[in-house]
């Protein structure tokens, strides 16, 4: 039976794909869970149209993110933290701290886009990847400065 996927289905396909599946799989699993609908002329045309719209939206988003990436690539952000003896930090610098430092310079960015790996626990310079969109990952410099 041919079906049009309404949502992404693991090991089958993405939303909008037209797939040939076993009748029982379609009737007993995909259709009752609203993961797919039976493929007919109307549903097929709708799926193709939705894929085109999604592609256009994704291309537009990538273009906007490339412009943002060009503006932040190589920028240096300073974060001042309190330190004790031997430059030992109290706490750590997290993605939230870096996002707040970027916000002060006029760039609003979600903290989940910053790829730290783990919080920064030492004073020094770090290179941080920013995941903006598929294939758009600029790097920024974060300078952790101890005070106190």
Automatic annotation (TrEMBL):
Keyword vocabulary terms for this entry: Ribonucleoprotein, Ribosomal protein, RNA-binding, rRNA-binding
Any Gene Ontology biological process: translation
Database matches in InterPro entries: Ribosomal_bL9 (IPR000244), Ribosomal_bL9/RNase_H1_N (IPR009027), Ribosomal_bL9_bac/chp (IPR020594), Ribosomal_bL9_C (IPR020069), Ribosomal_bL9_C_sf (IPR036791), Ribosomal_bL9_N (IPR020070), Ribosomal_bL9_N_sf (IPR036935)
GO cellular component annotations of the record: ribonucleoprotein complex; ribosome
Ranges for domain Ribosomal protein L9: 13-40
PROSITE patterns reported for this sequence: RIBOSOMAL_L9 (PS00651)
Keyword rRNA-binding: yes
Recorded GO MF terms: rRNA binding; structural constituent of ribosome
Coiled-coil regions, chain positions: none
Function: Binds to the 23S rRNA.
PANTHER family reported in the protein's UniProt record: 50S RIBOSOMAL PROTEIN L9
Stated family: Belongs to the bacterial ribosomal protein bL9 family.
The protein, known as: Large ribosomal subunit protein bL9
Organism this protein belongs to: Leptospira ognonensis
């Amino acid at each position: 039976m041919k079906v049009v996927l309404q949502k992404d289905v693991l090991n089958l396909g993405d939303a909008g794909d037209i797939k040939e599946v076993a009748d029982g799989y379609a009737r007993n699993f995909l259709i009752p869970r609203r993961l797919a609908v039976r493929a007919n002329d109307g549903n097929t045309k709708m799926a193709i149209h939705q894929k085109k719209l999604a592609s256009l939206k994704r291309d537009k988003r990538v273009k906007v993110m490339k412009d943002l990436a060009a503006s932040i690539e190589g920028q240096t952000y300073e974060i001042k933290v309190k330190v004790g003896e031997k430059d030992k930090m109290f706490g750590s610098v997290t993605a939230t701290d870096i996002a707040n430092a970027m916000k002060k310079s006029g760039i609003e960015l979600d903290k989940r886009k910053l790829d730290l790996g783990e919080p920064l626990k030492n004073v020094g310079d770090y290179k941080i990847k920013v995941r903006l969109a598929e294939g758009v990952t600029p790097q920024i410099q974060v300078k952790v400065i101890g005070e106190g």
